[in-house]
Specification:
Elements: H1 2-15, H2 20-34, E1 46-47, E2 53-54, H3 62-68, E3 72-78, E4 95-97, E5 100-101, H4 102-117, E6 123-127, H5 132-139, E7 155-157, E8 161-162, E9 164-165, E10 182-183, H6 190-196, H7 199-205, E11 210-215, H8 225-234, E12 238-244, E13 254-258, E14 263-266, H9 276-279, E15 287-296, H10 297-306, E16 316-321, E17 331-336, E18 350-353, H11 365-372, E19 376-378, E20 384-386, E21 396-399, H12 401-404, H13 407-413, E22 424-430, E23 433-435, E24 440-448, E25 455-457, E26 462-464, E27 467-469
Parallel strand pairs: 2-18, 3-6, 3-11, 6-7, 12-18, 21-22, 22-24, 23-25, 24-26, 24-27
Antiparallel strand pairs: 1-13, 4-5, 8-10, 9-17, 11-15, 12-15, 13-14, 16-17, 19-20
Helix pairs in contact: 3-8
Amino acid sequence: MQKGIKNKITQVMLEEDLPQLCVDVFLSQYEKMVAGEASVVREDEVKPVSNVVDLESLPDFSAKGEAVLNQSVMIKLNGGLGTGMGLEKAKSLLKAKNRLSFLDIIVKQVISQRDSFKSDLPLVFMNSFSTESDTTKVLEQFPELEQGQKGVSLTFVQNKVPKILLENKQAAEWPKDPSKVWCPPGHGDIYTALQTSGVLDQLLEQGIKYAFISNSDNLGASMDLSVLGYFAEQDASFMMEVADRTAADRKGGHLAESVDGGLLLRESAQCHADDVDSFQDITKYKYFNTNNLWIRLDRLKQHLNENNGIVNLPLIQNKKTLDPRDSTTPEVIQMETAMGSAIANFKDSIAIRIPKSRFVPIKTTNELLGLWSNAFILDDQSLVAINPERQVGYIVVSLDSKYYKKIDDLEARFPDGVPDLLECQKLTITGDVKFGANITLIGNVVINNKSDAQLLIKDGSVIENQTIAF
């Protein structure tokens, strides 16, 4: 029975012109799923990490970084559509700062570094089928990008994989809308897509060894020469940038050490019910993965050659309905992997604790409003930074998702621009509130509109450490 199902899966994937390696990788994950592999990591199999260096306490390795910059590449994960914010295009095309999109800023960062250090630094985007077209149209507006690419493709496309019916573990079919039976395989697919696209070999042929991979919505993740230099100096195969877990991160995954001393990621889906308290102890397991990763490409190639082109990653099973917008459609399993889990495949992997400035992801309109404001600046190298005039650390914004979750709704409530948030520590808005022009918010500001009518904050208002209820 299982052999027949696997043959059918192979057939439908090859009919979609997916590479044989993609099929092989998917079937290896499928076998884990039908065998009941839950990828659970028990508490007695791990321990807290014993050696994570702090970037801010290290000496400056920029000279070493500059020396190997010509052997480096910056890869951005760019497959997201930003549907959570109401977008139907690549999230990186969203305006981020100074009327520039995330994509514009990333390109300008790389061009600036090339100019500053008289160096080639290829920039490569891993797109999804949904973002490839939009992204390439924008990149065509920067013909100067090709000058430092060394013949390496600017983009490659991650694969897609079939959804599996929960009931019988067969590949889903949906003649009414065949596109619904496919899903992205998670960013762990980067190891497959680098091979099948030919980009891995292109990079290696140009003598490029050091790859920095990060999310396109994290503008703090620049090619930092000191971090690059440290990675090169350590001669490690894999390095993960980690940050401190806070109370808000208790339920998320964390970095840990196996009993034999190797590093691994333990996600919440891998936590046994009996181990929840320990898993959520942020004083014990102190660090989370920022998805800023550094990989030695020559070592990756060697690992792939030794393992039939496959990086063994823990399986993530997401149970959803075939059409996410229609709860009456059949239940399916979407099988995914995470690229950071590859840390366990290299015995010489290391981790480095980074400051908040290198991890500024924009996942919701809360963070986006803060980024739009004067709490952040874009410096002359197109790097996002806290405004140097700001004395109160990172701003925390909490917006009522009913009225501010979508970009269009957010913009409609700030038609004259974002208030002055330079001295604002925390902004909390509940209910429907619209802001006028030239508004200043200072300290901890809470605006709570419990009425059905929209509350208007008048032009020129200054609100300092106040709770406004309406």
